[in-house]
Amino acid sequence: MTTRPDISTVKAALRTQAIETPSWAYGNSGTRFKVFAQPGVPRTPREKLDDAARVHQHTGAAPTVALHIPWDKCGSSGGYTELATYAEERGLRLGAINSNVFQDDDYKLGSVCNPDPAVRRKALDHLLECVDIMDATGSRDLKLWFSDGTNYPGQDDIRARQDRLGEALATVYERLGDHQRMLIEYKLFEPAFYTMDVPDWGTAYAHCLKLGEKAQVVVDTGHHAPGTNIEFIVSLLLREGKLGGFDFNSRFYADDDLMAGAADPFQLFRIMYEVVRGGGLDSGAAFMLDQCHNVEAKIPAIIRSVMNVQEATAKALLVDAGALGEAQAAGDVLAANAVLMDAYSTDVRPLLAEVREEAGIDPDPMAAYRRSGWAQKIVDERVGGTQSGWGA
Amino acid sequence: MTTRPDISTVKAALRTQAIETPSWAYGNSGTRFKVFAQPGVPRTPREKLDDAARVHQHTGAAPTVALHIPWDKCGSSGGYTELATYAEERGLRLGAINSNVFQDDDYKLGSVCNPDPAVRRKALDHLLECVDIMDATGSRDLKLWFSDGTNYPGQDDIRARQDRLGEALATVYERLGDHQRMLIEYKLFEPAFYTMDVPDWGTAYAHCLKLGEKAQVVVDTGHHAPGTNIEFIVSLLLREGKLGGFDFNSRFYADDDLMAGAADPFQLFRIMYEVVRGGGLDSGAAFMLDQCHNVEAKIPAIIRSVMNVQEATAKALLVDAGALGEAQAAGDVLAANAVLMDAYSTDVRPLLAEVREEAGIDPDPMAAYRRSGWAQKIVDERVGGTQSGWGA
Amino acid sequence: MTTRPDISTVKAALRTQAIETPSWAYGNSGTRFKVFAQPGVPRTPREKLDDAARVHQHTGAAPTVALHIPWDKCGSSGGYTELATYAEERGLRLGAINSNVFQDDDYKLGSVCNPDPAVRRKALDHLLECVDIMDATGSRDLKLWFSDGTNYPGQDDIRARQDRLGEALATVYERLGDHQRMLIEYKLFEPAFYTMDVPDWGTAYAHCLKLGEKAQVVVDTGHHAPGTNIEFIVSLLLREGKLGGFDFNSRFYADDDLMAGAADPFQLFRIMYEVVRGGGLDSGAAFMLDQCHNVEAKIPAIIRSVMNVQEATAKALLVDAGALGEAQAAGDVLAANAVLMDAYSTDVRPLLAEVREEAGIDPDPMAAYRRSGWAQKIVDERVGGTQSGWGA
Amino acid sequence: MTTRPDISTVKAALRTQAIETPSWAYGNSGTRFKVFAQPGVPRTPREKLDDAARVHQHTGAAPTVALHIPWDKCGSSGGYTELATYAEERGLRLGAINSNVFQDDDYKLGSVCNPDPAVRRKALDHLLECVDIMDATGSRDLKLWFSDGTNYPGQDDIRARQDRLGEALATVYERLGDHQRMLIEYKLFEPAFYTMDVPDWGTAYAHCLKLGEKAQVVVDTGHHAPGTNIEFIVSLLLREGKLGGFDFNSRFYADDDLMAGAADPFQLFRIMYEVVRGGGLDSGAAFMLDQCHNVEAKIPAIIRSVMNVQEATAKALLVDAGALGEAQAAGDVLAANAVLMDAYSTDVRPLLAEVREEAGIDPDPMAAYRRSGWAQKIVDERVGGTQSGWGA
């Protein structure tokens, strides 16, 4: 039995896949050792949207942009509405709102898990403000990542911190509108080194279960212990109806935040296969990038990342589900593996070039961007001011 | 504020701590490369109990013995009752029943998750038989570890395997008596190398939640990805009322199954601290050993392991909870860490020697065992027959 | 500048690439939990060669077979000569001789590093016997892997063990003939769990330096700590003239011994790129497989592994060295990465099919093997006797 | 045979142990997410020395301070001489000179391994300048850590980078005076994420061998892959005469840079045992701290770290070498392990208190520092100016 989807179905799926780019990836980033500033980097949220518009223009697949508060803070509620309009004028929409409760001096020992109730209150207020901003931007998703944790055994009470976390999440959850969701991100370590308060999918999942249907887990592909099988987690969360989405990036070691698919393209393919298998292309899961371009040019790195996700998705869509199911049912290990590998070994770049051409886009986004002159233009024009970065 | 428990309270807690030893640790074990047989190793379940009785005699802390089916299979239901009587006559009780659905040729592609329904049925029947055995032995806990998984991407449908797993667990759960529990164990890898069907605490927890109150998670300290913070998981499971117990052992790399506390005594202390902190000494959680003595003599290795758990527990009980809480509330990182480390740095061997002497036991279990002549006796007497091991 | 080698050069390189298959991969293997025997598995070294001949017949790329002593022990020196003749009659040659000093009861605490001089002597004698066998088989390479190590801190003197190791290696080195080499393998852990006496490439390299030019390092791709960059090591060893060869296999976790290229095909490509870059295709480095087929059929798994190495090599050969060098010199991170990824993304299966057809071989080795009926034939004919495996 | 060194010998060794503290640990540090500034942090090299003097005053064990160039840059050669005098007046000496070739914008793609020869030249000049500074300060050791590496496969030529590295090292080595040494540090990852140019001890060792006797390897305890046995490396380097020293710190995950001994005190003990065993206390190896105090007060954290190294050393010195050797020779795994663990389980705090009292120091350095009022004094007095940190 051969049930490889016909090419038109595959193309249709690829045409509708939307990958959200993060505003902060257009700005400067680095390691604790050094942030290497790049010429032409945006200085304002609007300039980030200008860059994001180029990514969407050349890929046709990046229609939304995630904001990070306060890095993309507008002065007023009206400011966000204007920003949303600015985005729309460039063919974009504003996406998830990412909270930041890790860069104020108060947060040294945590935000919503801090032993000091005053700090917890401050952090909670910020989260609630983010929901206000969602109302203004029309965003669906509130993405919550907490840097909370401890560096030394005994530093704080692990269990009490969970109580504090649960309390804060419940308050924010109550504030969500009918069509809004809360996405809880987990991370094994960094910036805290002994415990993180949400270190793994199980912890995020346990909190989501208590909160309700609008709370879901977000999988950052760089946030796991070595050896963790990420596609297994994806499969499980989809089965539980709890996969809120992805923060895509790749890593060789820890949270390297390299371009999606750069370190382990086979893993990205396996993840996308489980997404396809589990109905995740249509489940409302958000496909977001979250990466840092420390040594490479930012806009083309994001274009490349979008393309990498597309290629992994194309390969996943090409898996012959019927042949695979047959081999699996027969316990034929090699045949089943071969069906999967056949799709992975396929060069899908011509297929994606066709999809782009059919959508009126240049078949080679990287070349088109290079030719566009945008890279030089922003270097020339964005002079003075303060470049965007993690701290600004 | 100083609230270090007074010594009599600490001693009382140590006196009542019971550590279950596993029947299989008395038999031969090894790696895939070689099982080095040791002279004097038991040939029957009764001889394993004879050895276990020595461990309990010298430690006073190992009153129960876990069985492994079929390694400890008795011919009939009556056989288990007789084995239980045999144990009682030696001051022991039979503990958890451990199922084994990984050593029949049928199980090459899994047991309850196998694509073949006939194999699944066979595995399920074995699990149900284990509950029958529990009825005969009076055991409270059914410990379920599944070696199920896949070695290659595509080999089987990850999600369908979860469905099959859930179905089997539900059937076994229904069969449990009122005072019986099901403990679900998780393991990152080995013997399967691409996916394990229960790779992490989150997966075990999600199944337990669906099953009901009698299903709980068991934490094998060797079954995690590198860098995983195990005491965090322990704290979380206690908070959720889902910590069924431990399989203690230690490791430097993967599932090394070394003596508990041998590789990282500080980690064992931190785990026991979270147990004490979370009420786990009195919650019904089972403290079991699950280790392999590949190159060292088995009985004294088990005595040493029991002592290591006791020492970690003693140190955890000595933590000055009041001083710790104060330092934590004040955000004094170094002071809070120092309170914990003060307990850890304490040499608790004299305290445990006192506890033993007060209980009428030799203060030095290792020396007492050496002097007892048991090691030579079993070498002399256990001649012929087939030594117990993982395959027998 | 475009310097992608022309296709005929690439084809020529692929045509001459020889991958050595290990006799033991044709026999049974498993984990410490269970060895699942497979019907049709060879019972003698000759039957292993029969199977290896099929692999070479269908791939044209596996002309040599590594032996493992004592698993492939022949009664006498003449026996090896006869085995070599048997191989030649099937179009094969005997390859590396692999010593085994880990399966006798004496070796519980090590072989050449054992604290007991009598055991060390016994192990050394075995190693010297392996050189005798090399003389008889005409093998060039003696592959030395030591399972030696310790399980517990303090168990033995780490440094004294190095002294003992160095002494044994020097004695064996002296015994080597002019055209013979000693390949020293390293492994992070397993079967020893606290220390391995040759845990990393640095240790193997340090010993090789002292021994002389005939001693080189062999890289088993599954023997590294998580996160280790293997291609870096390969590049370094080639630069130092110390890369003796590979034991190819793949892994997700520890020493999983899965089919080469199965777990991380991109890594295998990166390794082969460094081999090509460093002249390793012509340096005398041995390309060996060392893997276990625990759940999959063995012969087709080996065929697949050979093909995976070929595909990785083909992609590595297709890298446009000129364009890559230009982008690297210009510091253009994205362009340089793109050149490499362009080769990796290429579907090289048609190219390899051509190479095979031009060599008069079926373009699809897996299908040809399936059609050949060999799988059924060995099941029918190899009845009775003792199947080969790690212990026999 | 009992050969535990008598207490007076142990005390003598402890009395002479010197631990070098790093100037930068007195300043601010953090993660890529945030640097939490602390009040009272030094603003100048002299203020760092003032703080270091307190550490030495209370511990008696921290007589030297490592400098980091340019963070401790003085305007002129005379400036360093004055700084040395300033140190001497406070009972201190200046220690190792640490180069910094990672924070200029030029170094985005590396320093001495950069594809651009002009950048390489600049980096080399800095290294040579560091030797000039050593001449002025009288420092023995030049510590070289290179952040050089690549983030993406293909980004640069791995092998060519080794050539460039070797060339730079050779030039610097030539410049060293008779009594000066070059210590080469290795690190698995961060800030580069695909390759580091000196990722492991083997690479550092290979370069040292080529350079000559004055080049040695420095072991930063946080710079290894998960599961690496660091004490094995220490033992090996001592055996090869190539252990230049340590950068002590501890970690749970990656390069956490927590206080030495905080994450795994047993590991620190095992390392110090191999140091003692291998003669490393008298070999000229430098015992340096290299850690970051992101959330805890800096001076007491350094005092605690010094004490942790002392405690590990004391335990290592207490190992009964005779009993250990006997048990090892007899192959008695449990007895040998027990000898080591007996020393580890000992509470050595009273012993160290005695050593301090005998040296005229307060037996409790932490309490003495707390009572001294220094913490408040520096908060009050160090107002204005720019706090020291990694970037200043």
Automatic annotation (TrEMBL), chains A, B, C, D:
GO biological process, alphabetically ordered: L-lyxose metabolic process; rhamnose catabolic process
InterPro entries to which the protein is assigned, alphabetical: L-rhamnose_isomerase, Rhamnose_iso-rel, Rhamnose_isomerase, Xyl_isomerase-like_sf
Record-linked Pfam families: RhaA
Top-level taxon of the source organism: Bacteria
Keywords assigned: Cytoplasm, Isomerase, Manganese, Metal-binding, Rhamnose metabolism
Molecular function as annotated in GO: L-rhamnose isomerase activity; manganese ion binding
UniProt name for this protein: L-rhamnose isomerase
Organism of this sequence: Streptomyces agglomeratus
